[in-house]
Write the structure tokens for this entry.
Amino acid sequence: MKILVIQQKMIGDVLISSIICNNLRKAYPKAQIDYLVYEATTPVLEGNSSIDNIILFQEKHRKSKSALLQLALSIRATKYDILIDAYSKLESWLIAAISGAKRKISYKKPGRTFLYTDNVPFEAYPETNLGLAIERRLSLIKPLGLSISIDPLPQLFVTEEETSKAKTLLEQHLVKSDKKKIMISLLGSENLKTYPLHYMATVVDSIASNRDVAILFNYFPKQLEAAKTVYNACQKETQQKIYFEVLGGDLRSYIALMNECDVIIGNDGGAINMAKALNKPSFILFSPWIEKKIWATFEDGIRHCSVHLQDFKPELFTSKSEKELKKEALELYQEFKPEFFIEQLNQFLDQNVTDFGK
């Protein structure tokens, strides 16, 4: 049996959709399971034995109809038995249409049901604390009637060499091995997904207050100035607990470094999803225009917590569309003051960072 799973888009999406591959492997241990993803997201799939082949969706496939057609034809030539389209956008529709797969599964959306043999309801509300992002992916394997115990947790795999390098980096910067380490997801992928920097400094000060912890900032080199802005806005006592230069040089280095940390706190995004896949507790600050019900995965109020401006000022969201909220996101962020959730954050830290008060 040959199965193709499609999930273009960003790191978080690709990592979460990998649970489809993981559960298919449990159900069909001898099947060929291939995964079509954006080229830049492949580091989160390294070491995953549930995936036989990673098919790269490259920039040329986005820009050239001819290149996209050639990719679709090469997929058709592989003769897949099952195609699962977790992306369900124009690019994947073409691939599904040409694939020749005997069974094609995707979400039930207007105007495209004829492309698939199985159209699964695209649910609007979660039924469990898994969150819609997880529940929707798992719904795509329901038509197969798998007789297995479903595992909803995405997985990341860190090599011994990567672990050794991460430990060495921490040692070089004099981060004691027995000190609790807190990773800060400092910046989002864009301004509209980034908690205001002056507010973030207040959050970091609160984390450092009365806690003997090592604080690490996660940011890209191109975000250095923004990271410095937060650092400089922190209190001097807090700055002494921030190991500003301890930074993973690439995605795999970040994963290994995160694996050495105890919790992650900060902006929603790929960093948070990777931390969760490493089974690290998380406290998420959601952008005002992002729907919490989708990405607040595994929320239990203890190991995984999140806050959204709508939790505190629901009147600001009345009768507003996602498009309107996105347009107003920066203004709404200014309303999302740290004092709204600092008590919740402290409770989270008390429950997950045992060196409180030292």
Observations:
- The longest helix spans residues 11-27.
- The two ends are 57 Å apart (CA to CA).
- The mean pLDDT is 95.
